[in-house]
Amino acid sequence: MFYQEKREGYARVGKLNGKRTPLMIELGDELLKKIDFGKAPYSAKFLVDVSEDLLPKGEIFALTGIDRLDARQLFRAFEEVRGKVVYAVAAAKPVNVSLLIYFGADIVDNFLAIAKAKEGIFFTEDYEIPVEESEELCSCKFCEEKDLVGHNTEMVRREVKKCRFLIAKEELRNYVEAKVKHNPELTAALRIADFEGEKELFPRFKRSKCYFSNLESVNRFEVQYFLKRAFECYKPVTKTLLILPCTAKKPYLVSKTHRIIRSKVKVGVNEIIISSPLVVPREFELVYPALNYDTPVTGYWSDEEVSFVASWLEKFVKKGNFEKIVAHVEGGYRKVVERALKDFDVIYTAEGSIISESSLKKLSAVLEDESYNFFDQIFPSISRYQFDLEFDGDVFGKYPEIELYKCDEKVARIDLNYGKIDVYMFAAKRLLKEKKFFVKIGNFEPKGTIFAPGIIEADEKIRPNDTVVFYSDEIIGVGTALMSGKEMINKKKGAAVKVKRVEPLR
Amino acid sequence: MIKIWKEKERLDGEIVDCTTAVIVTRGCSWRKCYMCSYFLESRDLSEKELIDQVDAIFNEKSQVVKIFTSGSFFDEREIPEKVRKYVRDKVKEKGIKKLIVESRPEFIKDEILKDFEGINLEVGIGLESSNDFVREKYINKGFSFEEFKKAASKLRSYGFRVKAYLLLKPPFMSEREALNDVLNSIEEAKDLVDIFSLNLTNVQKNTLVEKLWLSKLYRPPWLWSAVEVLKKADVEIICDPLAAGKSRGPHNCGKCDRYVAKAIRNFSLTQNKKDLEVHCECLEKWKVSLEIEDFSRVPLFD
């Protein structure tokens, strides 16, 4: 009945009886008759002692009464029914439906749209206003006919459609972060989900840009994961460390400022780039979200930003055995370095502009060339990050479009859409040998998409968007995960792996 | 303590004066129903104190006397034998034409009923619903429809009248389920019942219903649902909408509550369906509630 097409954290797109989800159903829909809504509202279990047999049940799970819950209870309700087809009943309004979908709602309805209309409330994208004051706000066909139920329903429907589009584009998180700003309760729910939620369904790599426009942005899974994982996988080797500020253009190295610095100064040492809220060793700058983010740059750094970045910078720096630390930074960046590296003697080389002649001259004078070439360390670093093993070899290509070869065989390339490594057969076989990011399938010829029922076994560490290696007795191939490894094993239906390349297993 | 008031009551199709009293006893022995906390008003009283209350009732002159204990009149822990017989004697002495009391079925026994032979007695039983699941799971009433039927037959075998209380909108029921359950209960019980009394759930202190209501998971029934029941029922049925118009009581939109409640009370006396021809724009909201609450399981309107 339900078929999952693509997962994006708690949210997903799919098909239910042929209809695209997330889906808004209207009062009168045939589907309503097939769902067990139970007797007691689901939310009652958070508030009173209620016997289990009165609660809703079924494969399509009706989360009822959830608009009565506080932020934490709301999120917990979704956590409790994860894995089922989730129907958030009588809860959707234009302002909150994106969060419900972000939390995992596959189905919503127009019940509140109807009820609010009967109370004379007019829905806009984010506000509810008395219908008497709504003139000139809308020219939809329903408003032309003074059909308020129709209008309100349409507003919810549009949001649901928008969310479907955003999940496909992997953009839902950016949208939800903005949307929850309309209501502190929604903001609280998102924050609680960030802090307390299980994250095994979240992708590490995404093709959408990560926006750091909110306080919540720092708590995004990809960001928390990046900092922690890059720190784990970071292996600095030089005696000198160069600290540089971030750039608007990504990857940093193709930016004008970083290019100018490199053209004037021989940089043969480990580098760490500081941003807000990221700290990025040069070796990891092609990894998502370092590769693809935007942050509001004003020159003003809040105390929280400074201390957050400083704490991570300190950790990264302490991982090396640096004898000399050169910080070619100024302004807020300098504040970060000062806060992070109180216990170190830091040489500050920027005066005014970091690319002024005097700054660069100063930098040149203190930076000893240790002949360290970060270029050779990109694949080993990112493969540690991504696969928990190291791929090395000869790197070819024009940065950042680079490829890794071993004995004339192509091993891997950087996938600049996702900020990850894409592998070829040489690397695929190694992954298979080491039982990492593997998917064992039945003996069929995979084309286009591998579906969950065809999967026999899978690495539980797999997250959506991960590069995976699939195999059967006859073939081996490389693909992109569309769901988590656990889902591949447990799901009855749904798209599991998008096939990129496949060849007979020798 | 004792509450006594005069009201109108039907007697053989006539509208007559009635003395209604809620006397204080040690309270209902069951006291586990999800919507009820009348037992909070109970007190341990001596026989003397009970007799004093009875005397107060019969000081008033009326053709009909109604005695409520908020429990069971036939429960000897509430009304000892001596007091019960005292009431019977008073009824005879004062020439009361009809005595109305209430009792749970388990206290309706031959040895007690015998004492009342010759009196026009009407006994109200809180059946609430003819559906055992509803009565057990949503109300926690503690007796079955079978037990009700046995008690009702017994009453009838003595020539006494049976009044059945039906509860409109126990917790965990949608507005429509509640409405249909009452109509269904009337159908299933009418052969054993002389008169139905429709009780509209109100939110009493320290009850499960109150907890749900405080969390906005429960709303007392719309008065429109009561009107609908009264319109559709083809039996003698009365309804006194307690706390009508209050947020803890059955209510409509706030504008029409007094008017609709008055219509319900009028109908209860006249049994004339024309009294129920009332209208308000909030009927729209009620209709939406009937449709959506089956799915939403929570109220959509205040």
Characterize the structure shown.
Chain A folds into 3 domains: 2-196, TIM Barrel, CATH 3.20.20; 210-374, 3-Layer(aba) Sandwich (Rossmann fold), CATH 3.40.50.10630; 424-506, Archaeosine Trna-guanine Transglycosylase, Chain: A, domain 4, CATH 2.30.130.10. In chain A, 31% of the residues lie in helices and 23% in strands. Chain A is α/β, with parallel strands linked by helices and 506 residues long. The radius of gyration of chain A is 26 Å and the shape is globular. Chain A is built from 16 helices and 26 strands. The longest helix of chain A is centred in the N-terminal third of the chain and has 21 residues, at 148-168. Chain B has 302 residues and is α/β, with parallel strands linked by helices. Chain B has a single domain (3-296), classed as TIM Barrel, CATH 3.20.20. In chain B, 37% of the residues lie in helices and 18% in strands. Chain B contains 10 helices and 8 strands. In chain B, helix 8 (223-232) runs parallel beside helix 9. The A-B interface holds A 27, 32, 35, 37-44, 47-48, 51, 53-54, 56, 62, 64-65, 68, 89-90, 109, 111-112, 114-115, 118-119 and B 137-138, 171-173, 208, 211-212, 215-217, 284-285, 288, 291-292, 294-298, 300-301.
Short description:
The complex is a heterodimer of chains A (506) and B (302). With 506 residues, chain A is an alpha/beta fold.
Please give the structural blueprint:
The complex is a heterodimer of chains A (506) and B (302).
Chain A: E1 2-8, E2 11-16, E3 19-21, E4 23-25, H1 44-47, E5 60-63, H2 71-80, E6 85-88, H3 97-103, E7 107-109, H4 111-118, E8 121-123, E9 128-130, H5 141-144, H6 148-168, H7 172-179, H8 184-196, E10 210-211, H9 221-233, E11 240-245, H10 256-264, E12 270-274, E13 279-281, E14 293-294, H11 303-318, E15 324-327, H12 331-340, E16 346-348, H13 357-366, H14 378-387, E17 394-398, E18 401-406, E19 409-415, E20 420-423, H15 425-433, E21 438-441, E22 449-451, E23 455-458, E24 467-471, E25 475-481, H16 485-490, E26 495-504
Parallel strand pairs in A: 4-7, 5-6, 10-14, 11-12, 11-15, 15-16, 21-24
Antiparallel strand pairs in A: 1-2, 2-3, 8-9, 12-13, 17-18, 18-19, 19-20, 21-23, 22-26, 24-25, 25-26
Helix pairs in contact in A: 2-8, 4-6, 9-14, 11-12
Chain B: E1 3-11, E2 14-22, H1 47-58, E3 64-68, H2 81-94, E4 98-102, H3 110-113, E5 121-128, H4 132-139, H5 145-157, E6 161-168, H6 175-189, E7 195-200, H7 208-214, H8 223-232, E8 237-239, H9 257-270, H10 283-296
Parallel strand pairs in B: 2-3, 3-4, 4-5, 5-6, 6-7, 7-8
Antiparallel strand pairs in B: 1-2
Helix pairs in contact in B: 1-2, 6-8, 8-9
